[in-house]
Design brief:
It is a single chain. By secondary structure, the chain is mainly alpha-helical. 64% of the residues lie in helices and 0% in strands. The protein is built from 10 helices and no strands. It starts with a helix and ends in a 6-residue tail after the last helix.
Length: 228
């Protein structure tokens, strides 16, 4: 069955309903689940690992793990949360160089362990460039966060998960999530202050082309002769 046809079939189905359909043999619908959650899994795993190639490998392994263990999904949490926990576990084992077995191991939480998209249709190329540069700077700053703070920040602020959902994904308590998010934001502010210091004086530059345009316009309105 083509993906478009699959999407139409599953458009009104929740993740949990799709899981039930897969369990009774409609296995082609698993593609829908992967496409629905690819971005979250990518961002989550990317917050733990650094190489895109490793991220894709872990994503694939997580999807295989989830498919092979669908019978273990009990619905106590949302499917997306269950899937994200599997990806987090895989990524952690990968980053620690641990054996990659099929078992689903839940990491213990340690409280003391030390981006919405903007529509560009009405944005001029110059501001679009600024937006891209800001995105690059923000990604760089996020990557400098220690892993426990980085992954909480990504799930809460980038993916928009609630405190409870983030706690369930990472097997932490709510207070730990709140503490790590607060610490992540403080570290980002500190890093941004250091990064902005040397370049703050160069923002909102009035470039030569704009200068020439304004001068030419005023000269024309006043009827005076240009000095150029």
């Amino acid at each position: 069955m083509e993906y478009i046809e699959l999407a139409r079939t599953a458009d009104e189905l929740t993740d949990e309903m799709i899981v039930e359909r897969i369990r009774i043999g409609d296995t082609a619908l698993y593609e829908i689940l992967m496409r629905r959650h690819n971005q979250r899994l990518y961002r989550t795993v990317r917050a733990i690992l650094r190489e895109d190639r490793d991220v894709e490998d872990v994503m694939q392994q997580a999807y295989v793990d989830a498919y092979q263990h669908l019978d273990q999904f009990r619905g106590a949490a949302r499917f997306s949360t269950w899937l994200t926990r599997i990806a987090v576990n895989r990524a952690i084992r990968n980053s620690q160089g641990m054996a990659r077995g099929p078992e689903l191991v839940t990491p213990a939480g340690d409280p003391d362990h030390t981006l919405a998209q903007t529509p560009t249709s009405a944005i001029d190329p110059e501001h679009a460039t600024y937006g891209h540069e800001l995105k690059v700077v923000l990604e760089s700053l996020i990557e400098q966060l220690p892993e426990p703070f980085r992954i909480v920040f990504v799930l809460r602020e980038v993916e928009g998960l609630s405190t409870l959902e983030t706690a369930q994904c990472l097997d932490l308590n709510d207070d730990t999530v709140k503490t790590r998010l607060h610490r992540a934001k403080r570290l980002l502010r500190d890093q941004l202050d250091r990064r902005l210091g040397p370049v703050a004086g160069s923002v909102y530059q009035f470039h030569l082309s704009r200068c020439d345009r304004v001068v030419a316009s005023v000269v024309g309105m006043l009827g005076v002769r240009s000095q150029k």
